[in-house]
Amino acid sequence: MSTLQHEVDAMLEALIAAQRRGGRERLPPERELSARWGVSRVTLAKVIQDRVSRGILERRRGSGTYILQMNESGRTLCLGVLLRRRYARNDAHFMHLIDGIARHADSHNCDLQIFDGIEELLERDPRQNRLFRAIDAGMVDGLLVISRMSAAMLGDLRARVPMVIVHNTGGTESLPAVIPDWSASGFLATQHLLQRGHRRIAYVAHHFDQQLVVFEQSGYRLAFRAAGLPEPDPSLLCQTRGVDSSFDADHVRHFLETVRPTALYVHDDRLAAVMIAAAAEIGLEIPRDLSLVGYGHFTRDLPLLQRLTTIDPDWSAIGRRSIELLSGMIAGEAVESTITVISPSLIEGDTVAPPSPRPQAQP
After folding, report:
1. Where are the alpha helices (DSSP H) in 126-210?
2. Under the phi-then-psi rule, with left for phi > 0, alpha for psi from -120 to 50, and beta for the rest, what region is 117?
3. pLDDT band with cut points at 50, 70 and 90 for residue 138
4. What are phi and psi of 142, to 5 degrees?
């Protein structure tokens, strides 16, 4: 969808939720909605058709467009959102992920309840565990797991309610999952930098042992091969956290000064902001001396003076598909234990420019 279509889709989402609450199944005529929202009927029709194709709306010839029930009983479902550790509302990653899910909850007749600190909760006696008590009391119909947890951690929960893994797969490959296409993210970011003339493109991440990092690196390398270029030298891979898991500022500055990449693909916008600050400390200006692409589209939440060029994983689509999948499982629909992959897109900002004639590192 285009940016405008996403905006119209959000307005349509809110309208569907309001209509449901009021017990009104029929939408206002398209001409009325297009005038109300100031968009063309062509754009509106495309957005409505997308929801028709997903079984949310139905067009009835000569009658109008109607909202379909999202579960057979018509009752409101309660979905638990699970986080391994305590939820910090200033954590841009989980804030965007929860917002993407919440954006589609009303129109799918679902309420959400956050259960954080799961790692600590699961160590308690089930009788003293608020999550288990809520499930056993019939107050939770299904679970959306949005942070990395092992199959062992989720073992008891899997036997109690349907469960979908969201934005991660670590240790839970046997469960249905909805994830961004991390390989495509690495490819899009690297391809964009290659097209601007960069060849010394570094990949930067906190740790290299996460599955998403492995996928991103595969896309990063594939972009070089697709451009007919040799794969990047291993020296262009930068891990920013030391053995104690803290940010290793000295290592990062040393990397920028000695390896001298002309561009970075950073696997998280929050880390991208830190890399920009580290570059400034050694006199590198973005994008004159160093171009940068991030991941996550968190830019409105970061204290940046420039608009960050970033990969948007489409949090809304991830949230929508997660809700649809879990609602179907609760309704008894057969779901294969497979992974649903959501396509990302590149959002251009002000942090990418052609490489400057800065002296490069010696091979």
Report:
1. 130-136, 151-158, 182-195
2. left
3. confident
4. -170, 170
